[in-house]
């Protein structure tokens, strides 16, 4: 597993686990400019906002990436984004 910064050392979106330039651009597109803004957010609502804002349906794996970033900022261990795939599939099936 890659080495991550300590949570209190994270100052940019790109410092977050699983967030690179493209993921950071997606977050900025929906108004999330600082990592701490992720706390308390709904990854599914973030995904829907991204799709609405860009006028395109994004890969559902983006939800997994958003889940990983939100959960990490809320105190979870830094897990690979695909660790959230099963949860996302359950969430979409029940919704």
Automatic annotation (TrEMBL):
Protein name: Mitomycin resistance protein
One Pfam family per UniProt: Cdd1
InterPro entries attached to this UniProt entry: Cdd1
């Amino acid at each position: 597993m890659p080495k991550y910064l300590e949570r209190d050392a994270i100052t940019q979106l790109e410092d977050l686990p699983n967030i690179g330039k493209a993921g950071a651009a997606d977050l900025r597109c929906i108004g999330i400019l600082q990592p701490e803004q992720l706390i308390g957010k709904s990854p599914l609502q973030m995904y829907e906002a991204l799709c609405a804002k860009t006028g395109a349906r994004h890969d559902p794996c983006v939800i997994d990436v958003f889940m990983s970033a939100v959960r990490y900022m809320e105190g979870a261990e830094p897990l690979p984004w695909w660790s959230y795939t099963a949860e996302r599939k359950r969430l979409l099936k029940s919704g």
